[in-house]
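Re-run with default settings, no changes from the original entry. Doing this only to confirm the output is reproducible before filing.
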Amino acid sequence: MSLKTYRPLNVAPEKYEQYDEQLSRRTIEQNLQDVSSDIHSVKTQSDKDSSLSLRKYQFLLLGASNG
């Protein structure tokens, strides 16, 4: 599973500019949505790696009751 990188926040300017504030807010919102999506996929095992890992673990547990 590859590590994801999230967008860095912009450096705050000394002078207030509405465009910079909107860009910073949008970057934060996108990062939070990305993190939320990652958490949801881990909880539901919807991505390929976690789904295969869970199946392997369940298969090993089924064979563990031999004695």
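The longest helix spans residues 18-44. Residues 18-63 form one domain.
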